Amino acid sequence: MNIQQLEYLVALDTHRQFVLAAEKCHVTQPTLSMQLQKLEEELGVLLFDRTTKGVQPTAVGIKVVQQARRVLREVQQLREVVQVEKDELVGELRLGIIPTLAPYLVPLFLVELVERYPKLRVQVEELQSAQILQQLKDNQLDIGLLVTPLDDRQLREIPVLEEPFLGYISENHELYPQATISPQDMGAPGLWLLQEGHCFRHQVLNICSPAPVDTTRPFTYESGSIETLKQLVRHNHGYTLVPELSVLSELDNPMVKRFEAPEPVREISLVVHHGFVRLPLLTTLRDIILRQVPERLQAGKAQQKIKWR
Question: Are residues 169 and 225 in the same domain?
Fold first, then answer.
């Protein structure tokens, strides 16, 4: 048994295809298949069921893969400890970020981060919160940027921002004349929501109790994009809630309404596995983000954090 075989094992479990797993490991399919067969022979068990419908781990294979992921994480940490001591960060940084943050935060930090660490290859992927949490645990991601708190003992949270929720209200809606809004106002009809699975949707529903669905409306629509919801409202259709980062350039727009104090906010954190050792990288990333946003959004000032689940 060797580290390379464990890498092949984890790759096949991740991609569930020999061709794709081999491609990701930069080897030929026969090479990957042969090494996994040797591993199975050494262990004396079948790790994967190979069928015409794909590849699935066996019951014992699931346990072996879980342990292999732990071993590979430890090996990775050994290398990274040395990198930190040598003040030389190289290799890959895999970062997952939720879709309601990505358009507004990634442009603020990505270029500077790459310039700061030219030997580091940064991979950023938009994922929903549940996917980020699982991939952090499976060693498929190094850092997550998402809404907290998580209350997960396997993960460490480094709060960065506390971002207010704001109303985005069309000119013909009954809430438009108000200078500010309150959670009680959110029972008004016409609220647009994100699709199921977005933590932002759950937070909006935790802030307010929306009116029943208007069955007389000739259509329904739930979006996966904050920007799409804003466009719906701009074209004189109802209202929605948006994160402040999405409207930094239009805070003087009368369609944007702040909540009465205390403002509801979402806490945004950098999240890593407790075994993460490249701590200077976390500090740098946090500092870059904080320099790019208004000081009022820095974590530690809010009074009403909205839970996301």
Answer: yes
Q: Are 65 and 57 in contact (CB under 8 A)?
A: yes
Find which of 80-94, 101-115, 189-203 is predicted with most confidence, using mean pLDDT. 101-115
Cα 42 from Cα 228, distance rounded (Å): 54
CATH number at residue 233: 3.40.190.10
Q: What are phi and psi of 108, to 5 degrees?
A: -80, -25
pTM of the predicted protein model: 0.81
Asked whether residue 75 is assigned to any structural domain, the reply reads no
Residue 275 pLDDT:
85
How many domains in the chain? 3
62 falls within a domain: yes
Range of the domain at 243: 162-265
- Residue 82 belongs to a domain: no
Model pLDDT for residues 178-200, shown as the tens digit of each residue: 999 999 998 888 888 888 878 88
Cβ atoms 2, 75 nearer than 8 A: no
